[in-house]
Give the backbone structure.
Amino acid sequence: MNGARACTATFNGGAWTSGSLKPCARWTRSTSPAGAAGDMDRVKSEGSSDPTSDWPAIRYRDFYDVPRAVVVEWQGSLYLFDCLFDHDVDDYEPAYVVSRVPNELRDRIDEVSWTDLGHRSEHVGVVPTADVEFDATYRRRINPAVFDRLTER
């Protein structure tokens, strides 16, 4: 193995590895005044060739092709991307409804039901699911450019 070792960083109860046996890059974790939601801070590998390493981390619930309920911290606020299921057509809506989660729910985001979280949050806009880019796993990060694509509806 030439003295090489895989890089590992623990984040939010899971583990990420560099995916290769190259010398270990230094993993860093930023801090934020976000309280418990600070667990969603960005984690990046210095010198990483992963173009998504600077994208904000996500938490999600429900997954069908893509995450269907996503919480992400961006510029000091917590956002919910909610792709609702349409029972009439037996499929998910083609867009996320995006809401800003109130600060009083920030510390309890893992404890509260996300079912009515959108109703308890401030509506920000809508973005087609096809316009939302996730990391290769669709489970760790979201491209922050999505915030420029929000439209009112």
